[in-house]
Amino acid sequence: MNGYYTFIVFITVCASAITMVTIAGNVMLPKREKRLFLCLFASIVIASLCEWSAATLDGTSAQAAIPITLFKAVEFSLAPSLAVLYASVLGPEDNRVKVAMGFVALHAAIEWLLAPTGLVFYVDDAGNYHHGPAYAVYLAAYIASAIFLIAMTRRFSESFQYRNRRLPWLVIAFVALCTTIQSLETDVYIVWLALEIGASMLYIFYCSVIQQTDALTRLLNRYSFESTLSRLNKKSIILVFDVDDFKHVNDTRGHASGDSCLRLVGRAIYDSFSMHGSCYRIGGDEFSVILPDDHSRATELEISFEQKIEALRAVDATFPTVSIGEADLDPECDDLVNAYNAADELMYSRKRERKQAERGGATCTQSNNSPTS
């Protein structure tokens, strides 16, 4: 075994160890996600060392057959689990994750059962490692786990108002390319290094998502909003949203109902505006959207949003209304704070008009229902 490959394994193990130290010190990660990420990188370390050990013993002697078989069984068992471990981070409440976990556990059991038979892989009398007639079992499990990860990554990305969605696909393409290269060039051992790099990039992607988005509504957070405003370089429209009488929802129905209300409003904003602009929860029951300078499109999107809120109110008459204000924003000549305040002021003006109209309607109803003298 050449020293170059040993150096690659050394880099893989060291990089994984450094990432695990980083994960352990990340206070933003929930306990479950932290544990899954640690298991992911620990699996990469174990599997890469097993591959290196088997490669080092390959062709040395007939006595190497048993340890090579053990090392390859561990490696083959762990490989499909990497994609499922990361998918478990992305979809903690998805029942498909549980099914996938069961699938990789079953695959691991099959690998260990078949290892002594030589069907998936075998070691000849000279101690040389070879693929067996049922090697496709391992490949199928590896490919299936990769497809599952792609599906879960797409679902995760689409559930957040997050712009840098290309990173996971670039990572998956990179790992697929390295896997193909190793399959074609059997003397090249780069898959586990590629998986370590890919896992690190996906860890960065996940951390970036949770840092830039609001955990409750999955819209971009206030820091992202302020950063976007500071970088604006073209004419835009800024929309400001406020849930009417939200305090009443919390006071009468509890904070759990309040959170549910905010999630539904956030979803309505996302569904209405995310394809055309950036959506933010900037605090409490306040939201904002930044759109390109197209008033006719902005009006259409506002109407779509109001229809979604009315649909929610049709199901639950106590669901609150939402007031909207907007303002033009030209970064070259407008003050960003003044533009936001103008939208905010218009929103509160409409909120007051709505309340006055509701009080007027209630007064008319009482008058119509009063007994005549």
Write structural notes for this entry.
With 373 residues, this protein is of the alpha+beta class. It contains 12 helices and 6 strands. It has helices spanning 3-24, 31-57, 65-90, 95-114, 135-158, 166-184, 191-212, 222-231, 246-253, 255-273, 295-315, 336-369; strands at 121-123, 129-131, 236-243, 278-283, 286-292, 322-329. The strands form 2 sheets. Strands 4-5-3-6 form a 4-stranded antiparallel sheet. The radius of gyration is 28 Å and the shape is elongated. The model has no long low-confidence stretch (mean pLDDT 90).
Report a brief summary of the structure.
The protein is α+β, with helices and mostly antiparallel strands and 373 residues long. 68% of the residues lie in helices and 9% in strands.
- The parts where pLDDT drops under 50 for at least 5 residues are none
Shape: elongated
Q: How do the strands line up in the largest sheet?
A: 4-5-3-6
Main sheet overview? 4 strands, antiparallel
Secondary structural class: alpha+beta
Number of helices: 12
Total number of strands: 6
DSSP strand content = 5-15%
End-to-end Cα distance: 106 Å
| Arithmetic mean of pLDDT | 90
Helical content band: 55-70%
What is the N-to-C order of secondary-structure elements (H for helix, E for strand)?
HHHHEEHHHHEHHEEHEH
Radius of gyration: 28 Å
Features:
373 residues; alpha+beta; two-stranded antiparallel sheet; 6 strands; elongated
